[in-house]
Amino acid sequence: MQVLSLVWGILAILGMLVGFFPCFGALNWLNIPFSGIGIIISGIALGTAGEQPKNSSIAGLVCCIVALFFGIIRLVLGGGVF
């Protein structure tokens, strides 16, 4: 579950970076829910880790939060929200 969290976070960051290109700004409409689901998966992975090292789930959680935050900022600045 922790590896899934990390992979999900990396894919969210890649989607965010592609969404920064001018013609692909609409991709943020798909990446924001994708990042939200990643936050939920990372939270579950972090909660169920027990005594295992939690580095992968924390990294996935941070990546998804960063992708969500910058995706929303990109939509607001690009005029996709208002």
Describe the structure.
- This protein is mostly helical.
- The chain has one domain.
- 76% of the residues lie in helices and 0% in strands.
- It has helices spanning 2-19, 28-47, 55-78.
- Helix 1 packs parallel to helix 3 (55-78).
- The longest helix is centred in the C-terminal third of the chain and has 24 residues, at 55-78.
- The protein is elongated and about 45 Å long.
- The mean pLDDT is 90.
Describe the protein's topology:
Blueprint: H1 2-19, H2 28-47, H3 55-78
Quick overview:
The chain is an all-alpha fold and 82 residues long. It is built from three helices and no strands. The chain is 76% helix and 0% strand.
